[in-house]
Amino acid sequence: MNKVAAIVVAGGRGERCATSEELPKQLLILGGQPVFIWSVKVFCQHPNVDEVVLVVLSNLLESFQKEVRKYLPDSLAKLKFVSGGSARQSSVLSGLEYLAKQASPPKFVLIHDAVRPFLDRDDLDRVITSLADDRGCTLAVPVTDTLKQVKNDLVTDTLDRRGLYCMQTPQGGAFSLLLAAHRKMASEGIETTDDANVLERAGIPVQVVIGSPRNFKITTAEDFHLAQAIANSLKEKNGARHYI
User: Fold this and answer.
1) 3-state class percentages of the chain: helix first, strand second, coil last, to nearest 5
2) Which residues contact 210 (CB under 8 A, 6 or more apart)?
3) Residues pairing with 49 in the sheet
């Protein structure tokens, strides 16, 4: 199979996830191990992922390395560390540029948020299967809530949710396409929140792979509390091989 690399983005401080601990949310302890370990492990343990690049803030590099040595000692050869910025897009580009300098860059690359700790192994399998030379791919879930447009705290319209999806990660595609698209965005000073949009702006179609609501992003303190409950539940199940 063609070489597949994964970039796990763990930069940023996570100010919206304020807790009593003075740590970025990626390093908060979730079910007995840091949040980012949950996210990295599924890639490190997947037989079709050849390399995992973890992008972190440079001042926290030693902290992340220490946790990997503690919780994933068998993955040290597969996992590489790269310094990134506080903005997600610049961190992704740092990971891509690291891969570009290799003697044998990957054919495909997947990009995942470190604060999405419950990526299911089966979903990752389906994303890898969907990788193609001429398009991108992303996990996503259909919107199920009723959507309202609001102005000045008053509802102004009800939106049709048919065909609307919430984007998740991993997102990816051909390495050369993603690298060129990210470089172009950076050179033009354009910022966006996900890699699917980077590909869209480059005119590259993006295939949707239906994911799981459990693959949510920890953004707020409430998200973290929910994640803690899920992690504790999974730890109690001997069959939770997809997650721990």
Assistant:
1) 35, 25, 35
2) 139, 140, 141, 142
3) none
